[in-house]
């Protein structure tokens, strides 16, 4: 039988989130029941709750940066036991049969992966995310949180961490590579930490120098303000890899001018409106522009182990559930350093 659990949900597009109850499915043979301890607030939660990325499903319980403890396991579960520390990221199922799933890239499932929230399971039932006390997931779509990471700083790694780790790993950030991170926010600050730990030379490109001290503390070698026109002249032809983390439209041609010959600019932020650029910005230098979307389960586990090995999680501000709407406004205003994390204990009682 289903179980009623407490959650925070957006009842309609752009409506304030409010306390409610939702139904979680019974624990099946290969399922685990997770008592959620912390859930990160991702900017994509806001985009979807405000229906800025197209038609969405309501009521919506956001949250795909989930960290908690296993409290029940199905009879066929082999990967986890009661008491294990686990995380759930942006998807909770995939077809498991297509070439992308078989390659460990379930996030690019050709049938369409099942989103942790604002999605539908393959049986047609809606999915609800981590702004809730419990979640039931298939054991194959959870990851183990290493003992070296506390659950609160680990939660944002399930989206922000893997969103940056995946392209940095794919495009071989490391010693001898010059990497620029555009934007020092929830995504960007993880990019700085991860690229630095990989051994790359890291530069932050931010609108102003307001966060310079933070950027250098987190591992950046250099920090430049993009509002200063001289920045683009000074850094022309500098970078092997640029990771653009911002969820707003930027002048792409100006940023492409910063790439070396055969350099790549990768987009991981999703602005509300389409972007445009001049193809000659790529042609003159055999440059590339690409996108990247989180990582598969195997790579997400690799990322968590990497962060634990290097001794860091996300930079967080922990809030109670009754401050979610306030936190949304602060995220939009870039008033967070660098990820809000909801203490789910505040939902109980």
Can you put this structure into words, describing what you see?
With 349 residues, this protein is an alpha/beta fold. It has two domains: 3-159 and 295-347, Alpha-Beta Complex (Quinone Oxidoreductase, Chain A, domain 1), CATH 3.90.180.10; 161-291, Rossmann fold (3-Layer(aba) Sandwich). It contains eleven helices and 17 strands. The chain has helices spanning 43-49, 99-102, 151-154, 160-170, 188-198, 212-218, 230-234, 252-256, 280-283, 297-310, 324-332; strands spanning 3-9, 18-24, 31-40, 66-73, 85-88, 91-93, 114-115, 134-138, 143-144, 178-182, 201-206, 222-225, 239-244, 259-267, 288-291, 316-319, 339-343. Strands 3, 4, 5, 8, 9, 16 and 17 form a seven-stranded mixed β-sheet that branches. Helix 9 links the parallel strand 14 and strand 15 (288-291). Helix 4 crosses helix 5 (188-198). The protein is globular, with a radius of gyration of 20 Å. It starts with a strand and ends in a 6-residue tail after the last strand. Belongs to the zinc-containing alcohol dehydrogenase family. Its EC number is 1.1.1.2. It comes from Streptomyces bingchenggensis (strain BCW-1). InterPro entries: ADH-like_C, ADH-like_N, ADH_Zn_CS, CAD-like, ER, GroES-like_sf, NAD(P)-bd_dom_sf. This is alcohol dehydrogenase (NADP(+)).
Provide the number of structural domains.
2
According to DSSP, the number of beta strands is 17
Shape: globular
CATH architecture of the largest domain: Alpha-Beta Complex
Unreliable sequence segments: none
Sequence of secondary-structure elements: EEEHEEEHEEEHHEHEHEHEHEHEHEHE
Strand content range? 25-35%
Distance between the amino and carboxyl termini = 22 Å
Percent range for helical residues?
10-25%
Class of the largest domain in CATH?
A: Alpha Beta
Sheet with most strands: 7 strands, mixed
The CATH superfamily of the largest domain appears as Medium-chain alcohol dehydrogenases, catalytic domain
By secondary-structure content and strand pairing, the structural class works out as: alpha/beta
Family: Belongs to the zinc-containing alcohol dehydrogenase family.
Catalytic activity: a primary alcohol + NADP(+) = an aldehyde + NADPH + H(+)
Cofactor: Zn(2+)
GO molecular function: alcohol dehydrogenase (NADP+) activity; zinc ion binding
């Amino acid at each position: 039988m289903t179980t009623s659990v407490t959650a925070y949900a957006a009842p309609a597009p752009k409506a304030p989130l409010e306390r409610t109850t939702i139904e979680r499915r019974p624990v099946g043979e290969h399922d685990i029941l997770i008592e959620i301890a912390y859930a990160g607030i991702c900017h994509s939660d806001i985009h979807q709750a405000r229906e800025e990325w197209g038609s969405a499903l309501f009521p919506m319980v956001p949250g795909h940066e989930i960290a908690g403890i296993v409290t029940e396991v199905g009879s066929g579960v082999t990967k986890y036991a009661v008491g294990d520390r686990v995380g759930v990221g942006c998807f909770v199922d995939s077809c498991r049969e297509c070439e992308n799933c078989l390659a460990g890239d379930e996030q690019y499932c050709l049938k369409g992966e099942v989103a942790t929230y604002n999605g539908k399971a393959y049986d047609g039932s809606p999915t609800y995310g981590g702004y809730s006390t419990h979640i039931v997931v298939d054991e194959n779509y959870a990851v183990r949180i290493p003992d070296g990471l506390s659950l609160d700083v680990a939660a944002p790694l399930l989206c922000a961490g893997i969103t940056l780790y995946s392209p940095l790993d794919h495009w071989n950030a490391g010693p001898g590579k010059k990497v620029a991170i555009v934007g020092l926010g929830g995504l960007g600050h993880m990019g700085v930490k991860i690229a630095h730990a990989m051994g790359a030379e890291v530069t932050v490109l931010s609108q102003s120098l307001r966060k310079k001290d933070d950027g250098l503390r987190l591992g950046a070698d250099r920090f430049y303000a993009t509002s200063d026109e001289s920045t683009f002249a000074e850094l022309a032809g500098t970078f092997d890899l640029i990771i653009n983390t911002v969820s707003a439209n930027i002048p792409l041609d100006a940023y492409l001018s910063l790439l070396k010959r055969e350099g790549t600019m990768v987009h991981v932020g999703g602005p509300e409106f389409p972007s445009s650029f001049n193809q000659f910005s790529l042609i003159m230098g055999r440059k590339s522009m690409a996108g990247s979307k989180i990582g598969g389960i195997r790579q997400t586990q690799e990322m968590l182990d990497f962060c634990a090995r290097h001794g860091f999680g996300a930079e967080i501000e922990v809030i109670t559930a009754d401050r979610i709407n306030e936190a949304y406004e602060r995220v939009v205003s870039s008033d967070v350093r660098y990820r809000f994390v909801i203490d789910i204990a505040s939902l109980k009682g």
